[in-house]
């Protein structure tokens, strides 16, 4: 095995996933650029191993030890590249902490990322599931990214179209993109900023705070306050944020459900489909605040599953399955997990 790579064996991942699930990696390597990835690819033994690219571990559920090499993206660095077509281009390395990066842009007086404040994880992972919150998605502020292709060894630049962003989805979650490791991401922030208050709860909070001419930093602070109120801090209670995606159903299916459940929370989509609120469905099935063993449903937000202490991956999976079965039986809707199961 390659002697000049600082690979650690039988490495604990418990503190590297926000669910705080105990799991171990057969090999572990910190990666701060393409050079280490190239070395792994070229080494016959390392190159043949199963690979797991790890950022902040905030969208992962370990159900077993990882019998391969974990590539932990730790590269740091961020810079303002300049203005182009009325947008300010800002680039950050994959291992940068997402929230610290957002806060840094806001401190420079650059708006655009404020609705995505306080999301855990790294910059490199933001495009993977097209991270979104409070009416903004990564694709709205995305310019391009650089990725290392573990299959060919090429460093590629991908624009938004190439990344094929969709709701909690992108190229990188599909077979054609699985060999790509994101090295850095460039965002295009508006030179002439206007607040995005499309999300009703955020608009209400801004109004209640008396912010008649809010700055990007005001919006960022408001988003942070809402999130702190609603979501568990992974530093205190293990979780991976929303455990299920909001299901999208046809207009006809939604109409049938509304006839039976007039309170159903639904949002019309541009393509005519309807997005349902997974948290509402779970809550209505009586799961909010309940537990199965050491895995529970967060009492303030039914969409978040939590580690009540000492949970293993299978405890969380058992709870998730029970919830999926109940929601399917009552509403005929299949809930799809958001975190990546390992
Ligand atoms: C409390 C809490 C709140 C959350 N709120 C939100 C929210 O509002 N909106 C939202 O969208 N998500 C949310 N999440 C989920 C999570 O924060 C995001 O998905 C985040 O982008 C994951 O980043 P990460 O670095 O932790 O990725 P990880 O969990 O380490 O990895 C996630 C996936 O991305 C891949 N990956 C990571 N880095 C790279 C890279 N550099 N190149 C290629 N692949 C990579 C991994 O292999 C894995 O498949 C929340 C999570 C928590 C715990």
Automatic annotation (TrEMBL):
Cofactor: FAD
Keyword Cell cycle carried by entry: yes
Pathway assignment: Cell wall biogenesis; peptidoglycan biosynthesis
Domain FAD-binding PCMH-type intervals: 20-192
This protein's record includes keyword Glycoprotein: no
Any Pfam family hit: FAD_binding_4
InterPro entries: FAD-bd_PCMH, FAD-bd_PCMH-like_sf, FAD-bd_PCMH_sub1, FAD-bd_PCMH_sub2, MurB, MurB_C, MurB_C_sf, Oxid_FAD_bind_N
EC number: 1.3.1.98
Catalyzed reactions: UDP-N-acetyl-alpha-D-muramate + NADP(+) = UDP-N-acetyl-3-O-(1-carboxyvinyl)-alpha-D-glucosamine + NADPH + H(+)
Active site residues of this protein: 168, 242, 338
Keywords: Cell cycle, Cell division, Cell shape, Cell wall biogenesis/degradation, Cytoplasm, FAD, Flavoprotein, NADP, Oxidoreductase, Peptidoglycan synthesis
Cellular location(s): Cytoplasm
Xref: NCBIfam families: murB, PRK00046.1, PRK13903.1
Family: Belongs to the MurB family.
Functional note: Cell wall formation.
Identification of the protein by name: UDP-N-acetylenolpyruvoylglucosamine reductase
Organism the protein comes from: Massilia varians
């Amino acid at each position: 095995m390659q002697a000049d790579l600082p690979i650690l064996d039988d490495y604990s991942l418990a503190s590297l996933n926000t669910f705080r699930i105990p799991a171990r990696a057969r090999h572990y390597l910190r990666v701060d650029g393409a050079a280490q990835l190239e070395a792994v690819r070229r080494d016959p033994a390392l190159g043949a191993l199963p690979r797991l690219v790890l950022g902040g571990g905030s969208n992962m559920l370990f159900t077993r030890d990882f019998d391969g090499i974990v590539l932990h993206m730790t590269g740091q660095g961020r810079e303002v590249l300049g203005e182009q077509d009325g947008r300010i281009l800002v680039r950050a390395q994959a291992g940068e902490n997402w929230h610290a990066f957002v806060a840094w842009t806001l401190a420079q007086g650059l708006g655009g990322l404020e609705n995505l404040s306080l999301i855990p994880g790294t910059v490199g992972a933001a495009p993977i599931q097209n991270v979104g919150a409070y009416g903004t998605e990564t694709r709205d502020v995305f310019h391009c990214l650089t990725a290392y292709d573990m299959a060919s060894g090429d460093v590629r630049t991908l624009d938004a179209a190439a990344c094929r962003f969709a709701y909690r989805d992108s190229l990188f979650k599909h077979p054609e993109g699985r060999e790509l490791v994101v090295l850095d991401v460039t965002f295009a922030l508006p030179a002439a900023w206007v607040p995005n208050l499309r999300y009703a709860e955020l608009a209400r909070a801004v109004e209640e705070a008396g912010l008649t001419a809010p700055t990007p930093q005001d919006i960022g602070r408001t988003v942070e306050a809402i999130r702190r109120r609603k979501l568990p801090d992974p530093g205190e209670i293990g979780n991976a944020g929303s455990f299920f995606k909001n299901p999208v159903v046809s207009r006809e299916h939604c109409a049938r459900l509304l006839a039976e459940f007039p309170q159903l929370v639904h949002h019309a989509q541009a393509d005519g489909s309807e997005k349902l609120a997974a948290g509402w469905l779970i809550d209505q099935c009586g799961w909010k605040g309940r537990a199965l063993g050491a895995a529970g449903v967060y009492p303030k937000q039914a969409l978040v599953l939590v580690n009540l202490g000492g949970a293993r991956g299978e405890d969380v999976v058992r709870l998730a399955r029970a919830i999926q079965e109940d929601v399917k039986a009552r509403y005929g809707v299949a809930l799809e997990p958001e975190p990546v199961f390992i």
